[in-house]
Write a structure and sequence with these properties.
- By secondary structure, the protein is α/β, with parallel strands linked by helices.
- It has a single domain, classed as NADP-dependent oxidoreductase domain (TIM Barrel), CATH 3.20.20.
- Helix 4 links the parallel strand 6 and strand 7.
- Helix 2 packs across helix 3, helix 3 crosses helix 4 and helix 7 crosses helix 8.
C-alpha cells in the first residue's frame, strides 16, 4: 500500500474503502451482513486499511458491520473515518453523534471525523467548538470536512484551535468542476487545499463505475498503452496528484485487487496532462 503523510508522522493510504450501501443505503439491510463483513475483512487483508464511513450510512448499520469486522485486527493499523450528519451539527448533538459512532464501531477513537455536509442553519462556530472538545477528549485524532467550498473551509477553520486536515469531495475524470453537491472543485477547492496542506479525499473516483469500463476514447487508449484497466488509469490520475487520496466502494475481491493495481506506477507527465486538459465526453 502506498501512503501519503497526513500530518507529522501520521500517514494515510492513498486508496481507501468506501462503505456507502454496505449494510443498506438510507435504511439498514441486514440480509447481506455476513457477505458484507467478509468483504470488509478481505479489503483489510489486502492492506486497504483506510475505511471511510458515516453515521448516515444505513442509519448506522454500516458502522456496526465495520465494528464487528475490525475486532479481528490491530486497531492501530487501521485508519477509520466517519462523518457526522448535517442535522447533528449543534454542540451537544455532534458530541452525541460521535459517541454513538464510536459505540457502533466498537472503538475508542476515530482517526478522522468529518462534517458530512455544511448546514447554514447551524452556526459553524458551535460545530467547531464541539469538534475541538472531541479532540481534547481524545475521541477523535483529526478534524475534517466534506463537500465544503473554499469559503466554508475558511470559516470553519476560523472557529477551531485545531487544523482542518481534509475535505472530502466528489471528483473524477468526468466530474471536474460541477458535482452533485459541490462546484469549482478543480478551479478552486483542490488548489486551495493543496496550497494549505488540506488533504482531498475523493468520493466516487470512478463515477459509479462509468470509468471502470471501456467507452471513453482517451481512457481506452491509455489503458492499452500502459496495459492497465480503465479503472486503474482513472485512479492513478487521481492519486498522483498532490494531497489527493480516493475511497472506492467494492464488495468483490477482483475489483478490490484491480483498484490496488492503480499503485506502484505512474502516468507519464504528458499523459497526465492530457487527462487534465481533455474532456472525456
Amino acid at each position: 500500500m502506498k501512503f501519503k503523510k497526513l500530518t507529522g508522522q501520521i500517514k494515510i493510504p492513498v486508496i481507501g474503502l468506501g462503505t456507502w450501501a454496505i449494510g443498506g443505503k438510507n435504511e439498514a439491510d441486514t440480509t447481506q451482513d455476513n457477505k458484507n463483513i467478509s468483504a470488509i475483512k478481505t479489503a483489510i487483508q489486502l492492506r486497504i486499511t483506510f475505511i471511510d464511513t458515516a453515521e448516515a450510512y444505513a442509519k448506522g448499520h454500516t458502522e456496526e458491520l465495520i465494528g464487528k469486522t475490525i475486532q479481528d485486527f490491530d486497531r492501530k493499523s487501521l485508519f477509520i473515518t466517519s462523518k457526522v450528519s448535517p442535522e447533528h451539527l449543534k454542540y451537544n448533538d455532534l458530541i452525541e453523534s460521535a459517541k454513538m459512532s464510536l459505540k457502533r464501531l466498537k472503538t475508542d477513537y476515530l482517526d478522522l471525523y468529518l462534517i458530512h455536509l455544511p448546514n447554514p442553519e447551524i452556526p459553524i462556530r458551535e460545530t467547531m467548538q464541539a469538534m475541538d472538545y472531541l479532540i481534547e477528549q481524545k475521541l477523535i485524532r483529526f478534524i475534517g470536512v466534506s463537500n465544503f467550498s473554499v469559503e466554508q473551509i475558511k470559516e470553519a477553520q476560523r472557529y477551531t484551535k485545531n487544523r482542518i486536515v481534509a475535505n472530502q469531495i466528489e471528483y473524477n475524470l468526468l466530474v471536474r468542476n460541477s458535482g452533485r453537491v459541490t462546484s469549482n472543485m478543480e478551479s478552486q477547492i483542490i488548489p486551495y487545499c493543496q496550497k494549505n496542506n488540506i488533504f482531498i479525499i475523493v468520493w466516487r473516483p470512478l463515477a459509479k463505475g462509468e470509468l471502470a469500463r471501456p467507452g471513453f476514447k482517451l481512457l481506452d487508449e491509455l489503458a492499452e498503452t500502459y496495459n492497465k484497466s480503465q479503472a486503474q488509469i482513472a485512479l492513478n490520475w487521481l492519486i498522483s496528484k498532490k494531497g489527493v487520496v480516493a475511497v472506492t466502494k467494492s464488495s468483490k475481491i477482483n475489483h478490490l485487487k484491480e483498484n490496488l493495481g492503480a499503485m506502484g506506477w505512474r502516468l507519464r507527465q504528458e499523459d497526465a496532462d492530457r487527462l487534465d486538459k481533455e474532456c472525456l465526453v
